[in-house]
Amino acid sequence: MRYLYTLAMYLVTPIIVMRLLARGVRYRDYHRRWRERFGFYQGPTLRGSIWVHAVSVGEVNAAEPLIKALREAYVNAPLVVTTVTPTGSERVRQLFGDSVYHVYLPYDLPFAVSRFMQRVRPRLAIIVETEIWPNLYFACKKRGIPLMIVNARLSERSLRGYRPLQGLVRSALGCVRQIAAQSRTDAARYRLLGVEPARIVVSGNLKFDMPVPYAAVQAGEELRRKWGHLRPVWIAGSTHEGEELPVLEAHLQVLKRLPDALLLIAPRHPERFRLVESSVRSLGFSMATRSADRVPSAAHQVFVIDAMGELMQFYAAADLAFVGGSLVPIGGHNVLEPAALSRPVLVGPHTFNFEEITLTLISEGAAVRLADASELGTAVLQLLRDAERRKSMGMHARVVFDSERGAVQRVMELIDKQLQE
């Protein structure tokens, strides 16, 4: 199975490269540093590094408190952080600057993986959430590099997707020394993939340990002063194709009752910024953008956040948050970000990426699940007109967030154990 998988990887690599080039038409960062995708890196050859892989923005944000803990605990070990996407790369630079060595993870081709290992030479490999790359995993085992999956999650959908390759996946996971699962449900799904129970622990969600960004809170307060504390404001964060139109239609519904309401909308992917702006204009909204106007005025009805890494301050500035990726079957995005800021949360029916925490927020009265997009406008309007309910939901959201903290310490204890063996 591994040989067949490797052959398939070689066969599809030209298609992957073409897709990379196509995406680069809209977002030029996909054209830069492409040699890293094949294991060719600039910079020094490291020795004894600690390597953390976080595929994109969400995983980098989740890994932030862990990476900071690693920097403090292992000051003499080079710290390597890999991503797959340019947006993830940009987030690494924003959070850590030159304090970590950052490159793209190579494609799962034996020669590319080998070059990566020769340059990075990790003493420990840490995969954040779920990225199962068989050749990479086997390379770690061959070189005697302890491999961990932390903040591990596995949705029912992903579990079904792995079943046709279960033998290969089981063999790859056999290279993993320790899996630190987010929840008991995730741990059970890893066992169904054939992982020995002794190698799985439930450590909790690292995202609960992200620092409450007081700078973002202050920036959000400054934004509110500029557009008025009494103005009704809601945000649609991390939206995808198929969600912006329902969001804009919901805002039209809100404006009928609250003419001064403001919608903040933050598309998930930078290559879609211009398309979303075009959609806003086509519906006749008075609009502003982060890149051109910085902040909206009283005359603007929609503000497009066409910038990366600024979502938290806009969550802090809003009265409530709809978290995207949930009206379409993407699986939802991080509901903990608005929860940490005591903001009421709205989600659609598709939240399998964050199912357990979403259910907890709903059960504790901190979040509302919409059956479909048609309910969004009514739900937003009801909350914007009910300050007491927003306050209650926000308080419950923060209580849930605070009660679940401690995953970083538990994961650090597991890491210390691996490095001492």
From TrEMBL:
Where does it reside? Answer: Cell inner membrane; Cell membrane
Main subcellular location of this protein, as a coarse class: membrane
The alphabetized UniProt keywords are: Cell membrane, Lipopolysaccharide biosynthesis, Membrane, Signal-anchor, Transferase, Transmembrane
An annotated Gene Ontology molecular function: Kdo transferase activity
From the Swiss-Prot or TrEMBL record, give the protein name: 3-deoxy-D-manno-octulosonic acid transferase
Q: What is the lineage of its organism?
A: Bacteria, Pseudomonadati, Pseudomonadota, Gammaproteobacteria, Lysobacterales
**Which reaction(s) are listed as its catalytic activity?**
lipid IVA (E. coli) + CMP-3-deoxy-beta-D-manno-octulosonate = alpha-Kdo-(2->6)-lipid IVA (E. coli) + CMP + H(+)
What EC number(s) does this enzyme carry?
2.4.99.12
Organism whose genome encodes this protein: Dyella marensis
Pfam families assigned: Glycos_transf_N
